[in-house]
Amino acid sequence: DHDYAEAGALIASSPEELYEATNIIVKVSPPQPEELALFQPGQILISAVHLGTVTHQMLKTLSDKNITAIGFEFIETRDGELPIVRTLSEIAGSLAIQTAAKYLETGYGGSGILLGGIAGVPPAHVTIIGAGTVGLFAAQDALGLGAQVTVIDKEINRLRRFEAFFNRHLVTAIANDHYIAQLARLSDVMIGALSPKQKLSKPLVSEQVVKTMKAGSVIIDVSIDQSACFGTSRHTTHTNPIYVKHGVTHYCVPNIPSAVAKTATFALTNTLLSFLHKFKEHQTISEILWKSHSLRKGAYLYKGYVTKKMLSELTGFPFREIDMLLASE
User: What PANTHER family does the annotation carry (predicted)?
Assistant: First the structure.
C-alpha cells in the first residue's frame, strides 16, 4: 500500500469504498458474483471476459445498471491484432509447456517421461491444437526443450506460417477427426491453444478420443477461458489445478498467466496503459469510443446494451450495433 501511495494512488479501505468513489473499474478477472452488487449505475468496467464463464445473471446485473464494459479479449487494432490477448497468450503458451513437463513427472502421476528426452531415449510427443499466439510460444518452448512437436489447425495458411517460422522443425496437420484421433494415441501431451476468434460449437477432441490417450499423458486446456477444447475438460483452479480422467491428467485453469503474477502484471500494464490514457484525453465514454477504434471494438456492453453478437447468442440478450448506438447520441 505504501508503494502505491508513493506513486500517487489513493488507498481505499474496502471494496465498497472503492466502487463508490470511482467512475472506472479496471480489474484482471471478470466481475465475481459478490462484486456485482457493488457496481454503481453508469460505471465503466475494463477487464477480461472469459466467455466460458459468462452467466446470464452477470450480464443482467451489469445491463440493469447501465454499465459500459470493455473486454480485454475484444480490444482490437485496425489491422486485426488483439494486443492484450497476444500479450497474455505469449505467457500462457510458455507456461503450458512448463506445466506439462511438471505433470509428466512420476511424482505427479504422470508417465515419467522427460519432455526433451536425452541421448538414446526419445523425447515426449507434444501436440498443440491451434496455430495462434499460444501455440506459437508453446511450440517454441517445447522445441527448445527438445520435444517432438506437432501443430494442428483448421486453417492451412496458419500452418504454412508455422512451418516457415520454425524452418520445418515441427510437423503440421489439418485439425480434422482423422488426424486428431491419430495424434491423441501418439501424444504424451496435448495442448488446447485455440484463439478467442476460433469459436467451437463442440469440443474439438471428443471424450471418446481422450479415452484412447496413453495412461499418464497430460492435457493442458488453455482454451478453457473461452470454451473447452476437449470433451473431458472442466474448470479447475490454481489451488486444485488438476484432475485425472480416463488415466489422463487434465490441467484446465482459466487465466493461466496469473500463475506468474509479476511477469503477467508488467506485461499487461505495458499493453493496457496506452488504452487507459485515452480516458484522460476525452470527456465522455461515447467520445472515447467514437475516437478509439480499439476500445470501440472492445466494448461488449454500452450503457447496458449488449454490443457483441457472440454474447447476445450466448445469453439471449438482444444485440445492438455499437456504431448505431454512438451515432444516435
Answer: ALANINE DEHYDROGENASE (PTHR42795:SF1)
- 6-63 confidence digits (pLDDT tens): 999 999 999 999 999 999 999 988 999 999 999 999 999 999 998 877 888 899 999 9
List, by residue number, the catalytic residues: 50, 225
314 and 216 within one domain: no
Q: Are 148 and 172 a contacting pair, CB within 8 Å?
A: no
Indicate if 111 and 211 belong to the same structural domain: yes
Closest CA to 256 of 126, 101, 132, 91: 91
Give the total number of structural domains in the chain.
Answer: 2
| Closest to 50 measured CA to CA, from 193, 244, 223, 226 | 226
Considering the domain architecture, whether residues 243 and 294 belong to the same structural domain is answered as no
Cα–Cα dist 315/78, whole Å = 28
DSSP-H helix ranges across 133-243: 133-145, 156-165, 177-186, 207-210
Quote the CA–CA distance of 141 and 92 in Å, as a whole number: 11
Q: Residue 265 domain-assigned?
A: no
Q: What's the confidence (pLDDT) of residue 116? A: 94
The answer to whether the beta carbons of residues 265 and 252 sit under 8 Å apart is no
Compute the distance between CA of residue 126 and CA of residue 294 in angstroms, rounded to an integer: 35
Report whether 238 contacts 249 (CB < 8 A): no
The amino acid present at 135, given as its one-letter code, is G
Beta strands across the sheet bearing 44-47 = 24-26, 44-47, 68-71, 299-302, 305-306
Is pLDDT at 200 greater than 70 in this prediction? no
pLDDT of 312-322, one tens digit each? 988 889 999 99
CATH number at residue 153: 3.40.50.720
Q: Give domain status of residue 55, yes or no.
A: yes
Edge-first strand order for the sheet with 171-174 is: 171-174, 148-153, 125-129, 189-192, 218-221, 248-251, 242-245
